[in-house]
Amino acid sequence: MEKKDLDWENLEFAYLPADFSYISEFKDGAWDDGALTRDHSVHLSECAGIFHYCQEVFEGLKAYTTKDGDIVCFRPDQNAKRMADSAERICMPTFPEDRFVEAVFETVRANEAWVPPYGTGATLYIRPYMIATGDVIGVKPAYEYQFRVLVSPVGAYYKGGVKPVKLKVSEYDRAAPHGTGNIKAGLNYAMSLYPSVKAHLEGYADNMYLDPATRTYVEETGGANLLFVDREGTLVVPQSATDSILPSITRRSLVDVAKEYLGMKVVQRQVRFDEIGDFVECGMCGTAAVISPVGQVDGLNGEVIEYGMDEVGPVMRELRETLTGIQSGAVEDKFGWVFRI
Ligand SMILES: *Cc1c(COP(=O)(O)O)cnc(C)c1O
To answer: Which of 52, 123, 172, 190 has a Cα-to-Cα distance from 217 of 20 to 30 A?
Structure first.
């Protein structure tokens, strides 16, 4: 397979259409067989439900080339399951989980020339998503939907080595208590854009959101879960009493890595903002960066919590290296997380 002539090492995290996308339509209560398409545009009625009541859910994962030349992706079955959970929460039909994984594989195979070669740090970003395409004017779920998969080659998240970032505690909330914070839906991002742009302008990588009901507990950032390490070396993972943290697949994998690969103690509990100064490391985790070390957090009342802006801490480094090692094939894949395409 001849690869596309791209400057793989210098790709940005930006949309670059590949050859094929995947599309399946839901009509009269059933999904059709689905197919690849070369058309990267969506043609919709002006009254489609997506435009008015925002029925949209999405996923994000990546395909990449291992040292042995295999094209693989990481736990796509978990993305399939999470998308089904997200869809159910906003009254959309679920796309069958086995078909989700098949559709992702079919799309990646058709775009093999766009999967970055091993060693470039680049990956093929995969964005499955579902939208309401049927007309609605009164407030209710639509009757017709599209499931689509688009792919785009993207550059390595960290080009010059992993560097700690700064967060600020947001004066806004990301999700309501018992709302939709635990599903992957565009609507959660729409409301985080304003605080996110503001944080970037002020020189922060992202916002840290506190629990919306009491502003006492730490939840997550705009698009990544948080992790802490205490003085005893225990991994402390924030939980939400109001179910407003997105269940990150990276975070759940890192918990298993910490316990089963590194023999670490892991505690999953509510974490008060006023105790995070006692921790020795902080990181954000998600598919894109795996772990981004957090070097500093600025609170709402002038608090400055410092973990160190110079380099990634030893525990975050080891967690990151172990998980990326499993992904690349350098570390044994004990749990069958890496799927060959
Ligand atoms: C996607 C997402 C994450 C990270 O999830 P992964 O499955 O690890 O990529 C974290 N928080 C939010 C709000 C997200 O949308």
So the answer is: 190
